[in-house]
């Protein structure tokens, strides 16, 4: 008879183990056996809860995206409702928050982006993430700019976030979150001038 409450314990454990395995050896070499050993469980548990490695990667990214969403929302609440520039800075800051630039999370993001080109479920997650970022940015930019220009600037900020993030992820020094925020703020100031 299964123990009550085990999914709530096992799933986060396996998600963290997935990120640890990807951090250690990359997605291709992170086998179900390796991930289960990082979590201290049987490989059958991964198949039971997630249907295999692909389902586990999807659940892992859902967890990372949920943390990203919660971080952005928290920063938006702290920024208050009245200053669109502060709110845009909060959105950017959420994308470069400490939990998003942690090594194992960064490598998981890179694996996700690469795999999303070949996996329909992961591609959908990427599209949702992309649309959410643009939606947040557009909501604030439309308070400052005409709709067409707001869309242009939102796409520019999103491209800067992705580009800075990717360059930092591939750099031995990692992602410089302060420089990232400064670069996006500078771009925004130029567009608002």
UniProtKB/TrEMBL annotation:
Instruction: Recite the UniProt keywords alphabetically.
Output: DNA-binding, Repressor, Transcription, Transcription regulation
Q: Which residues bind DNA?
A: 31-50
Q: Where is the HTH tetR-type domain?
A: 8-68
> For this protein, what is any one GO molecular function term?
DNA-binding transcription factor activity
Q: In which pathway does it act?
A: Amine and polyamine biosynthesis; betaine biosynthesis via choline pathway [regulation]
Checking Pfam families in the record gives: TetR_C_6, TetR_N
Which segments of the protein form a coiled coil according to its record? none
Tell me the GO BP annotations in alphabetical order. glycine betaine biosynthetic process from choline; negative regulation of DNA-templated transcription
What is the recorded function of this protein according to its Swiss-Prot or TrEMBL entry? Repressor involved in the biosynthesis of the osmoprotectant glycine betaine. It represses transcription of the choline transporter BetT and the genes of BetAB involved in the synthesis of glycine betaine.
- In Swiss-Prot or TrEMBL terms, this protein is called HTH-type transcriptional regulator BetI
Annotated organism of origin = Marinomonas algarum
High-level lineage: Bacteria, Pseudomonadati, Pseudomonadota, Gammaproteobacteria, Oceanospirillales
**The gene coding this protein:** betI
